[in-house]
Amino acid sequence: MPERGGTILVVDDDAGLRRVIQHNLEEAGYNVMLAEDGETGFRLFQQTHPRLVLTDVRMGGLGGLELLTRIKAYSPDALVVVVTAFGSLEEAVKAIRLGAYDYLGKPFSREQLVLAVSKALAFQGLTRENRKLKAALSSRKHRVLLGDSPQMQAVHNLIRRMATAEAPVLILGESGTGKELVARQLHRQGARRKGPFVVVNCAAIPEKLLESELFGHLRGAFPGAARNHRGKFDQADGGTLFLDEVGELPAELQSKLLHVLRENEITPVGGKAHRINVRVISATNRNLETEISCGRFCRNLYSRLAVLPLSLPPLRDREEDIPLLAQHFLDRYSGDRNLSLSREALSALQCYPWPGNVRELENLMERLAILARADLVERDELPLKILTCGMSGARRVVHLPPDGYSLEEIEKQAILQALALCSWNRTRAAEFLRISSPLLTSRIEKYDLVPEQREAAGISLESS
């Protein structure tokens, strides 16, 4: 079928041939615009940007080859087919060398004309799709989990070890820390990398539609189900399903997801159960142990999802990664400009707590790439909230002795005080410290903390 969008510009000084070409192409479903000479043709090309130019080579005034040269200089990607006289192979070869897509020798039939045009437009469509694919691949290539800090090195080591397994992974971390990037890396580095990677944002889908989105439905299963629908589990068969914001799942769906993880089978709405082959990776910014204690999340489901837990550190805990990340995002959004941040600007960025984490940093770098006054971004170009961060008015929590103190001991005392305030309830203490329960447990084991311990002398940690 011909592609009907856009217009074909026909340039020929033979009025009779112009009308014949116009008639044949319009009958085939194309829109046609006519020009009686090369100068008029080039002017119309500049004004209307047709999808294809069909031009005779031999015309009075501006000839077809000269018109082709002008068009390609003006728009290198323009699609041009030239019409040559019978036996003029030399002209055809020259036209191809100048950038014509194809040539059509006189006399030609209606079928030859339509075929030449449809082939040219099909090539153009393929070229556009190829560019889109390259752009998508380039964008994906640049979206990697960056960071050389010890925390991120530990994350990368865990990803490498977890990727080869089939067990479910639960990625824990605040919003904007890169949980989906981790999920994609787990998929790309695993045995299922040739299979599909399907993303479901559990918080973005209305509760009434969530079961159908996950498990699919059959035609007539409920009012409005006009046709069969493959759910996300079926779409991910042989690959990986990423359940983002899994903590938002309603209770009924939690029990059904638990069944899927236990039995490796799903039941579409209105259909029969069938087996699936999917690795499940999930993520949440919630403390699921707290949700369990409040009765909002199923403990058995948590145990199934968190066979391999992976915690992502917030950006404020890896400030040494900020220069690398900031420059990476500046490069992505600055186009041909060679932008960089001054030392003072970087210092201000490293003092800011980044409540929105890496996503907030990326958004800021995109803004700076657009608004930067010069190639070196100065401190005064940063938002006021970053410039004023850490100035007077902020409450001091840690009071250090004048002769110095061990950073590990500060962490140990902070954990001890939080546990004491929470009556040694680890779930509440983890929430108080704004860390995950597994991380708190690892710190308790690291420092060998027990309820009998008391706060050491030499440092005060205010709790009010």
TrEMBL record:
<dbReference type="InterPro" id="IPR003593">
    <property type="entry name" value="AAA+_ATPase"/>
</dbReference>
<dbReference type="InterPro" id="IPR002078">
    <property type="entry name" value="Sigma_54_int"/>
</dbReference>
<dbReference type="InterPro" id="IPR011006">
    <property type="entry name" value="CheY-like_superfamily"/>
</dbReference>
<dbReference type="Pfam" id="PF00158">
    <property type="entry name" value="Sigma54_activat"/>
</dbReference>
<dbReference type="GO" id="GO:0005524">
    <property type="term" value="F:ATP binding"/>
</dbReference>
<keyword id="KW-0067">ATP-binding</keyword>
<keyword id="KW-0238">DNA-binding</keyword>
<dbReference type="InterPro" id="IPR025944">
    <property type="entry name" value="Sigma_54_int_dom_CS"/>
</dbReference>
<dbReference type="Pfam" id="PF00072">
    <property type="entry name" value="Response_reg"/>
</dbReference>
<keyword id="KW-0597">Phosphoprotein</keyword>
<feature type="domain" description="Sigma-54 factor interaction">
    <location>
        <begin position="145"/>
        <end position="370"/>
    </location>
</feature>
<feature type="modified residue" description="4-aspartylphosphate">
    <location>
        <position position="56"/>
    </location>
</feature>
<keyword id="KW-0547">Nucleotide-binding</keyword>
<feature type="domain" description="Response regulatory">
    <location>
        <begin position="7"/>
        <end position="121"/>
    </location>
</feature>
<keyword id="KW-0805">Transcription regulation</keyword>
<dbReference type="GO" id="GO:0000160">
    <property type="term" value="P:phosphorelay signal transduction system"/>
</dbReference>
<dbReference type="InterPro" id="IPR025662">
    <property type="entry name" value="Sigma_54_int_dom_ATP-bd_1"/>
</dbReference>
<dbReference type="InterPro" id="IPR058031">
    <property type="entry name" value="AAA_lid_NorR"/>
</dbReference>
<dbReference type="GO" id="GO:0043565">
    <property type="term" value="F:sequence-specific DNA binding"/>
</dbReference>
<dbReference type="Pfam" id="PF02954">
    <property type="entry name" value="HTH_8"/>
</dbReference>
<dbReference type="Pfam" id="PF25601">
    <property type="entry name" value="AAA_lid_14"/>
</dbReference>
<dbReference type="InterPro" id="IPR027417">
    <property type="entry name" value="P-loop_NTPase"/>
</dbReference>
<dbReference type="GO" id="GO:0006355">
    <property type="term" value="P:regulation of DNA-templated transcription"/>
</dbReference>
<dbReference type="InterPro" id="IPR025943">
    <property type="entry name" value="Sigma_54_int_dom_ATP-bd_2"/>
</dbReference>
<protein>
    <submittedName>
        <fullName>DNA-binding response regulator</fullName>
    </submittedName>
</protein>
<dbReference type="InterPro" id="IPR001789">
    <property type="entry name" value="Sig_transdc_resp-reg_receiver"/>
</dbReference>
<keyword id="KW-0804">Transcription</keyword>
<dbReference type="InterPro" id="IPR002197">
    <property type="entry name" value="HTH_Fis"/>
</dbReference>
<dbReference type="InterPro" id="IPR009057">
    <property type="entry name" value="Homeodomain-like_sf"/>
</dbReference>
